[in-house]
Amino acid sequence: MDRSGTMLFADLLGRAKTRIMADWSAELERANARVPGRVSTQELVAQGREVLELLQSAASSGDSDPTSAAYSRLRDLLAEMSRARAFQGFSPTETATFVFSLKKPVFDAFRTEPDLSPDAMSAGLWTATTLIDGLGLFTMEVFQKSREEVIIRQQREISELSTPVVKLWDGVLALPLIGTLDSERTQVVMENLLQSIVDHTAEIAIIDITGVPTVDTLVAQHLLKTVAAARLMGADCIISGIRPQIAQTMVHLGVELNVVSKATLADALALALQRIGRRVVSASPAPAVRASA
Amino acid sequence: MDRIPILKMGHALLVTIQVDMHDQLAMALEEDLTARIAATGARGVLIDISSLEIVDSFIGRMLDSIAAVSRLLDARTVVVGMRPAVAITLVELGLSMPGVNTALNVERGLALIGVSVSGDGEHDAGTEV
Whose CA is closest to B17, among B59, B56, B58? Predict the structure, then answer.
């Protein structure tokens, strides 16, 4: 029954192709009208024609399993289309509608088919439904995977972007941390910092955590690891930018850092300069001070 | 058996580890170094590990214990030139070696020993905090 249903479906696609395509174009146009501006209807119809062509040739092999080799070219085409849609920012519904909107034209074609026994009709319909559902699900799967790829890529970029090591002075580095510190990021941060210590022959590293939203015991442990590793390399660490609320939370949690910490990056830099034996003086003596003296 | 040479520079002893450390060698070094500190009355020990690519927990502990022993003999130990990867490994192993002084290179290490030996507390004060 399965095979005969598939052949019937393939025959129908061959015979009533123009009509199905016309109906489908109308469906696509209606769906596209709801979200204008992303893709032209002509383009959609052209893609639809290609899909229909490949679907017919694949179904005429008698295979009704959309994951089989006969459908590989069709799957490639659909995968390409839904990947493009994922990057263009289509919603899942919009992407899936493209395939699922083929159902109505196909069912209509079956209904108006002359001299078709009820058995044959139901077999053909069943094949058509499972096939289109399978292809629709496949489209969604690719769509989802493409979105996930985007997310993973962005995550990687964020973690690379948000761990810059800045040279503040000869021998003084700053590491402005932004975002949550998890173990993976700590690893990247640590490697970046240690390599920069070697590259700049730095004595002091200032870790600024103004941009770290929360400091719990785990984050504190990660910070301490970084500090310990920097110390092993012969560089002292100063932690700066602990916000008042965070300081309170840390004390309530019983988190102890045992590292020199300063309220602001400016204070930390002042301390760092003092330690490397530098002093910041104003270019000209301030007149106000003179007058008072 | 191989021995790691110990050089004397003024009041300091300089050890450059250029071969892969195995446990036997590490223990021999600890013994030799202790004897040399006692014999020369050195005030500082500089251990250069810049060519050491692999450290395990044993070598980490050995460095720690060398530092402890030298402290008893009134010599300050400075480990210099640790590679980033080695530092990360030691921290992950839970060996942050609180008793050991560290410096980025031999030059800074010598300065550290020089400062502490001459008793010039001005620069030293910062590291105490």
Answer: B59
